[in-house]
Amino acid sequence: MRHNKNFNHLSRKKAHRDALLANMTIALIERKRIFTTLAKAKALRMYAEPLINRAKEDTMANRRLVFSHLQNKYAVTELFREIAEKIADRPGGYTRILKTGNRLGDNAQMCMIELVDYNENMLKEAAPAKKSRTRRSRRGSGSASAAPAAETPATEASAAETPAAE
């Protein structure tokens, strides 16, 4: 029986698929963001996230296990040093897939897969959005009462300057 044994083979044999996913994982670790097809990105997420999760605990056994998959000591070093610090408190979901449209040649669905904690643009947009959020009532009187209150200190300030000038 083949219950629950389905995953995307990417039209490749096992050795070719493993090499492809290992090389894509190395590129993702080194560059923090890569552009690829949606099918490859989904397969890469399933391959890379357990390896990234191993980097949280820096032991020799974990380093050897990750190196046995990646075969690149520079990528393993960067994973266990730099990336492990940023993902230390994250419980999972280390990658993000953003769809970018279809490729011109064969109309394949393209996307960008990136490490979540390394997108500075999204981190900057997310932080101010939470700070500027205020609670407002549905009535229009709240904005009308705020406008005269803003004018009053300005009027008092100009009146205080006028007698001093005379």
Q: Can you give a write-up of this model?
A:
With 166 residues, this protein is an alpha+beta fold. 58% of the residues lie in helices and 12% in strands. It has six helices and three strands. Helix 1 (14-31) packs across helix 2 (38-54) and helix 1 crosses helix 4 (73-86). The longest helix has 25 residues, at 141-165. The model has no long low-confidence stretch (mean pLDDT 85).
Brief overview, please?
58% of the residues lie in helices and 12% in strands.
Helicity range: 55-70%
Strand adjacency order, main sheet: 1-3-2
Portion of residues in beta strands equals 5-15%
Radius of gyration: 27 Å
Largest beta sheet, briefly?
3 strands, antiparallel
Instruction: Write the element-wise H/E pattern from the N-terminal end onward.
Output: HEHHHEEHH
Count the helices. How many?
Answer: 6
Head-to-tail CA distance between termini: 98 Å
| DSSP, total strands | 3
What structural class is derived from the secondary structure elements? alpha+beta
**Average residue pLDDT:** 85
Low-confidence stretches: none
Shape: globular
